Amino acid sequence: MKETLHKDIELVEDSLGRVLNGEILDEDTLYALSEISSAEGIDALLAGAEQLTNKFCDKKFDSCSIVNARSGRCSENCKWCAQSAHFKTGCNTYDLVDAHEARRVARYNAERGVGRFSLVASGRAMRGKALESVCKLLKEVKEEDGISTCASLGLLNEEELQQLWNAGVHRYHCNLETAPSYFPELCTTHSHADKLKTIKAAKRIGFEVCSGGIIGMGETARQRVELAIALREVEPHSIPINILVPIPGTPLGETAYISDEDILKTIAIFRFAHPAVTLRFAGGRARLSRDVQMKALRAGINGGVVGDLLTTVGSTIAEDKTLTEEAGYEF
Fold it and tell me: How is residue 247 annotated by DSSP?
């Protein structure tokens, strides 16, 4: 037991020193960090991640809010998703969000200090007149409502992404979702390679990329590290870390919750793998206690999806502002 504890602490201290000195940790080291099991070793890992966040990251909390631009009837068979047409979940369905309502939400968030507004849409890709309408809406939001814009509209090609860019949207969101080795177990209607194709097209145009995934979908601890490593190819500005909310009717509807300890370890290891990138709390954090959320903020979370109207967040903008400021950030 003492030998294991000594090795855990030694591994964390060595890894921390290397990253602080500007080194990029190799894959074997990151996988080894995921195998730390002693309470003292995990505490050291979280403390090390906090040091890295303090050294490499801005103290301004990177907040964003989202509106679902199109809901339900999605052609893709992602096993976690309530909006897939392959599963009976009873989710709300509509073709395109009302522009006036979206503008109202954007202004509401801008007035409360939220930094970015994003439209997300169900479906493999938003195209044609629907994409033109979304581009018009996002252009108006950026120019008239005083908030930066982002979009998550599926597997767009370069021409479609250029339409967004021309509308003033300069950040695009496309999650890798999970480890490349595990993705085929969760979705067969598109691939990890399809995701990368869209991301690379966005980067060629000049977009900042927001790309992360969902943890707690039955993947192993090593596969969470595999996702962190795969994201190095993407070089994202922001990595959303979602925690699975099992949705009745989906194939993952009965999945047991991932433990708080595994969530915190994952966040810490992502910080060791991506020292200067924004790690963003996204869906699923509603089930976490305030204490666990505070530990996550200190261990590496320095951004988040916020919003009084977002049920998966489970907190208000005011509550998030208080929490993040207590953790030492400027909201």
Answer: P
Asked if residue 280 lies in contact with residue 210, where contact means CB atoms within 8 angstroms, the answer is: yes
Q: How far, CA to CA in Å, does 92 sit from each of 69, 77, 95, 262?
A: 12, 17, 10, 32
The region of weakest confidence among 60-69, 121-130, 303-312, 319-328 is 303-312
**The residue count for the chain:** 331
Q: Which of 88, 124, 126, 46 has the alpha carbon at shortest distance from 247? A: 88
Distance CA 123, CA 100 (A): 22
In 3D space, the residue among 116, 127, 117 whose CA is nearest the CA of residue 70 turns out to be 127
87: tokens are 């599963």
Q: What are phi and psi of 38, to 5 degrees?
A: -70, 145
Q: How many CB atoms lie within 10 A of CB 111?
A: 12
pLDDT digits (tens, 9 = 90+) for 175-204: 999 999 999 999 999 999 999 999 999 999
| Confidence band of 43 (pLDDT split at 50, 70, 90) | very high
H helical segments located in 21-111 = 27-34, 39-56, 99-111
Helix (H) or strand (E) holding 301: strand 301-305
Per-residue pLDDT band for 307 (boundaries 50, 70, 90) equals confident
pLDDT at 309 over 70: no
C-alpha–C-alpha distance, residues 164 and 187, integer Å? 27
Closest among 62, 39, 81, 68 to 249, alpha carbons compared = 81
Answer whether residue 26 shows pLDDT above 90: yes
Contact 70, 122 (CB under 8 A): yes
Residue with the two structure tokens 């790309």: 211
